[in-house]
Specification:
Layout (H helix, E strand, L loop, with lengths): L4 E3 L3 H16 L4 E3 L6 E5 L3 H11 L9 E2 L3 H6 L6 H10 L4 E6 L14 E5 L4 H10 L3 E2 L14 H8 L6 E3 L10 E4 L5 E5 L5 H8 L3 E3 L22 E5 L4 H10 L7 E5 L11 E4 L4 H17 L4 E5 L8 H10 L4
Parallel strand pairs: 1-8, 4-6, 5-9, 10-11, 12-15, 13-14, 13-15
Antiparallel strand pairs: 2-3, 3-7, 4-7, 5-6, 9-10
């Protein structure tokens, strides 16, 4: 299969891309699309056969549910059995944006979307292309990240092509994702409320908005309520180790102790930047969680493209606003 890339560069190309993508989605096909978090692999969320194509293209396990994207509160309410007052408060504060709410699903949502579960994750994305695409289609869109299962999430159309080129009929490229990490997922069906997947909207922000305690997810049941909960996920091909070092000498000791040739080791630093550089590559990511999130996946993709064998990542700070970044790095290392 040939996979063309439609690049959005003008208002005209925006509207052409919406028209072509919506035509494919209405026909039961899948399309890679931009969102503010990461690029998604989209299908009509109400069409079981179309959603199965997402699983097939990604090699995604059937037990891993998919988030449903909407473009209005009325569309969100239409596809859940219950819409509590707390959902209105959260939607008013954080939607459109990178927050997914887990609620009891309505009968309109096929079980293939929810991996057989009785809940569904719903999100109203901020990206103008996704908003217009959903309005044009007039149905909700199921869209996990547009990459092979468990591999690095894509934040550009080119990342999508490297992973799924030849497996899907279209990629819409609107440039780099503005947030760069997957959405926060909040379970509204549990007491206390649980963050199933941390994102750039923090548990503290959610707690402040609703005046209730929000906790991190504990051990999940056999049926997952959210994507992003597998132990190994969001992973580069290279082995990834999270570490800390106080000096160049300490970093080099860690690197040599890995048994990997220094020329095949890439360093991702944000504070302790090495002055000497015997490594294959040293990348500096800003010491700011929002900027770090935007850069992280692109840097890991670049290390894979340059055939790194090992990526040594400087451990992020312990503060809560770095929770999502720590989560992604742990899962990328296989220690999620």
């Amino acid at each position: 299969m040939e996979t063309p890339i439609l690049r959005i560069e003008t208002p005209q190309s925006f509207h052409r891309s919406v028209a072509q993508a919506s035509e494919l989605l209405r026909a039961g096909e899948i399309v890679a699309v931009p969102t503010e978090t990461v690029y998604g692999l989209a299908a009509n969320a109400l069409n079981s056969a179309a959603v199965r194509k997402i699983y097939e293209a990604k090699g995604r396990p059937a037990y891993n549910p998919i988030i449903v994207h909407v473009a209005s509160l009325s569309m969100a309410r239409q596809h859940v059995r219950a819409w509590p007052e707390i959902a209105d408060i959260l939607a008013a504060k954080f939607w459109p944006g990178p927050l997914t709410l887990v609620l009891p699903k309505s009968d309109s949502v096929p079980s293939v979307v929810t991996a057989g579960g009785e809940t569904v994750g719903i999100r109203w994305p901020l990206h103008p292309f996704m908003q217009e695409l959903i309005r044009e289609c007039a149905f909700p869109i199921a869209a996990p990240s547009a990459n092979l299962a468990n591999q690095l999430s894509p934040t550009t159309g080119d990342h999508v092509f490297q992973s799924l080129g030849g497996r899907i009929p279209l990629i819409v490229d609107a440039g780099p994702s503005s947030i760069g990490l997957e959405s926060t997922v909040l379970d509204l069906t549990s007491i206390p409320l649980r963050v199933l997947r941390p994102g750039m909207i923090s548990a503290e922000q959610i707690s402040d908005a609703i005046g209730l305690k929000v906790v991190a997810a504990g051990r999940e049941s056999a049926i997952l309520k959210s994507p992003g909960m597998l132990r190994k996920h969001y992973s580069p091909r290279a082995r990834l180790i999270i570490s800390a070092w106080a000096s160049d000498a300490e970093l080099e000791k860690i690197a040599r102790g890995s048994g990997t040739p220094l020329s095949r080791i890439h360093i991702l630093a944000h504070e302790r930047i090495p002055h000497s550089n015997p490594y294959g590559r040293v990348a500096v990511i800003p010491h700011d969680p929002e900027a770090y999130a935007r850069a992280l996946y692109a840097e890991l993709h670049r290390s894979d493209q340059l055939n790194a064998a090992l990526i040594l990542v400087e451990a992020p700070p312990p503060e809560s606003h770095w929770d999502a970044i720590r989560d992604r790095l742990r899962r990328a290392s296989g220690n999620g």
